[in-house]
């Protein structure tokens, strides 16, 4: 690599406004997981206009770009997701969603915009690169089984030495970059439970098997799995998030539907939890003469960051923004299918601070008022570009 940092920064500065334009277009035209047809076409068209990028469509709604340098070397992949959520936007901005009931409420529009900006910069450096930079524009991060696994199966990671990705993060203030070593995000598993009792008149409960009463005990006792059946030093979350039963005030329903999520890092604990859950469910329902149907779905694997790649990311942040920009963050129990790429090769995921109350960018992710401070987009472009170059040379 012969280009100087100053010359690269000039190119990055020149695309700053374009990146905001990309983000606003994507925000205004959101599409749900596995439905990103217009989004992926927009990405494809933008990349094609840059030149120096070999393009493919490995799945129906994903895009891969390859910037192959003049000399052989390593292959570094950069990933950005593009799907939106089924949320009706409540922000009063000129670029608000025009697709009713669909919104970019997690920052994926920004992720895609940042990688488009980085692609434009890196495409101008093609003849100076030793190796290849592979651009992974991924569909369907929000909906299991996820787009990452589909892309891996389609061969997008063949030959890749290192993969990086980032998430705009509203809980982290603008200007900060979140670095996590080792376990970063948990495996998000899902469970579905139906408690079947015997319905009847609410004034004659002795003639029924009260599914609401039984299901309520199940919910309460499932919490003992975390507090009493597993090591308190293990990271485990079990949350019941849906409880549906009954239609009116004087009828005891025959069944109750429950679902929720389990989050963990340890693979052995992850396998043990559904067994512990069914033991509780079986015991309580049998004790009260009820029956049950239980289904447990294993979701994405946990995101575990590679130490060497994370060190390069941290060093890049320090060089570009100074040590004070680095926030050594703890793991959290969110889930991310970036982990599918990490199953193939070493990789690391990091956070880009996007929170700023002065710009109403302090609502949580997946909220109808979610917003980012768009100054964070340039930081993402910077770190994608400089980290990729550094990893090629590492």
Quick recap of the structure?
With 394 residues, the chain is α/β, with parallel strands linked by helices.
Walk me through this protein's architecture:
- The chain has ten helices and 16 strands.
- The chain is α/β, with parallel strands linked by helices.
- It has two domains: 273 residues, Aminopeptidase (3-Layer(aba) Sandwich), CATH 3.40.630; 111 residues, Alpha-Beta Plaits (2-Layer Sandwich).
- Strands 1-2-4-3-5-16-6-15 form an eight-stranded mixed β-sheet, sandwiched between helices.
- Strand 1 and strand 2 form a beta hairpin.
- Helix 2 packs antiparallel against helix 4.
- It is elongated and about 80 Å long.
- The termini are close together.
Strand order of the largest sheet: 1-2-4-3-5-16-6-15
Number of domains: 2
β-strand percent reads 25-35%
Which overall shape is indicated by the principal axes computed on the Cα atoms? elongated
Number of strands: 16
CATH topology of the largest domain: Aminopeptidase
Largest sheet: 8 strands, mixed
**Count of alpha and pi helical runs:** 10
**By helix and strand content, what is the structural category?**
alpha/beta
Q: So, the CATH homologous superfamily of the largest domain?
A: Zn peptidases
Name the helix and strand elements from N-terminus to C-terminus, one letter apiece.
HHHEEEHEHEEEEEHEEEHEEHEHEH
- Report the CATH C-level class of the largest domain: Alpha Beta
